């Protein structure tokens, strides 16, 4: 497992609803593998949750019941995805949501993973306190990050999040933190805004 923040897997789920505890399932996963800050691989797959998705989710994600009808099962896709992840650390925008679904889907398959999670949204809240909101689309526009205008599809969102992640690492580099560890990013996401400056200055080499 790389402990560097620029070698991670950035992932995003599209789901049937907000909570696996309420019976919601994943319907798409997209992920980008970064090694030393470069995209070296991607993963994208629709998956059939075994029941019809609501018209709200169809219009929100653009993923229709018709598209899911012949998609492989969640079990098949998530088994393959666990291999793709290996022991990498992971990043997601609003990571608590994606982690809940990853944990729930892998628990059904009795698959463990050893990587840790960091949340790009929480980190952006600290680094970009003047952004209008910290939703992914708004941050992409705020930082003028190139995008194709597609949001709420798993691979497009994970690609955007990966670009945002690299922009945030660049921001830290400009503050004197050249190659932060993944653990540093996790701590940064939990640092209060008032303590941010001293936290960063402690880590400048």
TrEMBL record:
Keywords assigned by UniProt, alphabetized: Exonuclease, Hydrolase, Nuclease
Any Pfam family matching the protein: RNase_T
Domain Exonuclease: 7-174
EC number per UniProt: 2.7.7.7
Molecular function GO labels: 3'-5' exonuclease activity; DNA binding; DNA-directed DNA polymerase activity
Biological process, per Gene Ontology: DNA replication proofreading
Any Gene Ontology CC annotation: cytosol
Name by which UniProt lists this protein: DNA-directed DNA polymerase
Species this protein is from: Vibrio halioticoli NBRC 102217
Taxonomic path: Bacteria, Pseudomonadati, Pseudomonadota, Gammaproteobacteria, Vibrionales
Gene symbol of the encoding locus: dnaQ
């Amino acid at each position: 497992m790389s402990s560097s923040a620029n070698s991670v897997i950035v992932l995003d789920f599209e789901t049937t609803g907000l909570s696996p505890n309420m019976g919601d399932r994943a319907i798409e996963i997209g992920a980008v593998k970064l090694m030393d800050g470069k995209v070296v691989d991607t993963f994208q797959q629709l998956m059939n949750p075994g029941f019809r998705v609501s018209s709200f989710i169809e219009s929100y994600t653009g993923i229709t019941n018709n598209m899911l009808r012949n998609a492989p099962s969640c079990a098949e896709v998530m088994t393959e995805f666990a291999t793709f992840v290996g022991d990498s650390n992971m990043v997601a925008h609003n990571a608590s949501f994606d982690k809940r679904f990853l944990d729930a889907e892998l628990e059904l398959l009795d698959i463990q993973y050893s990587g840790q999670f960091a949340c790009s949204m929480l980190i952006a809240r600290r680094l970009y306190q003047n952004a209008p909101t910290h939703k992914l689309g708004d941050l992409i526009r705020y930082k003028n990050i190139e995008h194709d205008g597609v949001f709420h599809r798993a691979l497009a969102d994970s690609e955007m999040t990966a670009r945002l992640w690299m922009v945030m690492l660049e921001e830290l580099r400009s503050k004197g933190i050249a190659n932060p560890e993944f653990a540093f990013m996790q701590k940064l996401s939990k640092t209060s805004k008032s303590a941010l400056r001293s936290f960063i200055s402690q880590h400048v080499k």
